[in-house]
């Protein structure tokens, strides 16, 4: 006999503060990305070291990023920098609030894989490749791939911010150790660009998973906090 136990249950998945911080982060990220591409277009190449070397850039993007993807749409380095700095400091303030909640409520542990997680990495990869998403109690926790992805993004942000500060001559004058830390202003610029590219890749995968695992349910949980969990089928 089969028991009909697969009716979805609704849980409170995200706190109000987490949801507010999430949407502020999303706004800041897109504004920083667009203004950052505007800044990059002023010199669409990457170098290592302290000074710009046009002849030996290890990466070069001919013509830079298209105007429709930058903020502002025309080449305007000064305006791009103003937009970038404003949303960078907003992101820092918002991130401080978010990280504060993670540590105060000990949610940071939710992103740290344990021994069980490491042993199940191959299983998690196969499940994701087959678009098998967790159900029942398993859906109450992040899987190991989610933990590793979120933890990598959390660790990338402080380095990204420090690298961005190192590109400021004023910050270098006040904190000269920044140049030593990154091996020069151009090295900091390259690291900043590469980490930003990693976060763009993270965002693309994140959005893909949101769509594939149920966009309405996922977006509703980040707006209202309410998340529906599909129960597993049980046979008696």
Topology, number of strands: 6
Instruction: Tally the structural domains.
Output: 1
* CATH third-tier fold name: Fumarate Reductase Cytochrome B subunit
Strand order of the largest sheet: 1-6
Alpha-carbon Rg, integer: 21 Å
Reading off the top of the CATH hierarchy, the class is best stated as: Mainly Alpha
CATH architecture: Up-down Bundle
SSE string, helices as H and strands as E: EEHEEHHHHHHHHEE
Structural class: mainly alpha
**End-to-end gap:** 5 Å
Largest sheet: 2 strands, antiparallel
Shape: elongated
Mean pLDDT: 90
Helix content: 55-70%
CATH superfamily: Transmembrane di-heme cytochromes, Chain C
Separate helix tally = 9
The low-confidence runs, each spanning 5 or more residues with pLDDT under 50, are: none
Features:
mainly alpha; 236 residues; 9 helices; Fumarate Reductase Cytochrome B subunit; 60% helix; two-stranded antiparallel ribbon
Question: How would you summarize the topology of this molecule?
Answer:
Blueprint: E1 2-3, E2 9-12, H1 16-41, E3 45-46, E4 59-60, H2 77-104, H3 115-119, H4 121-129, H5 144-166, H6 169-174, H7 177-182, H8 185-213, H9 215-223, E5 226-229, E6 234-235
Antiparallel strand pairs: 1-6, 2-5, 3-4
